[in-house]
Amino acid sequence: MQRVPTVANLSGTIALRTHDGRYMKVFNTDGGLQFRDRTLDDNARFIVVKDDYGRVSLKGPNGKTVNLYYSSNVMCSEETGIWFEVAYLGGPWIHLIISGKYQGVGSTIRYLSSDRGHQTFSGSLDVREKEDPSCWFLVENLD
User: Fold this and answer.
1) Are 16 and 23 in contact, with CB atoms under 8 Å apart?
2) Which of 83, 29, 38, 32 is nearest to 16 (CA)?
3) Single pTM value for the model
4) Statement: residue 4 has pLDDT above 70
């Protein structure tokens, strides 16, 4: 039985799940990310790194950081990555928000989605201009 926190806690090692129980995982050597299945394994473990402004970055099990490509594709393939703002939605649920200096984002905000990104990127996650159910994530603390 999975333990669901009453409040999202983004610290230490976490896993992110969708509303239907699928985990975000690094699934290939290129740092591809997908919400593929409902099994918690080592490929679903991400270390939370925080900055002085309350933003978080996620370091994947491959040692790389989650990063944004061309404003709409997210992978886990760089040494330095994207800083997400966190919107706490109540209980264990969050949005991961992209804003600021990233290519193609400008002054708008974007939401990380659990849906697949563009085929060109061999396993990326999509980014949405407006939040929808694919942008809701449950935080599971692993340590």
Assistant:
1) yes
2) 38
3) 0.89
4) no
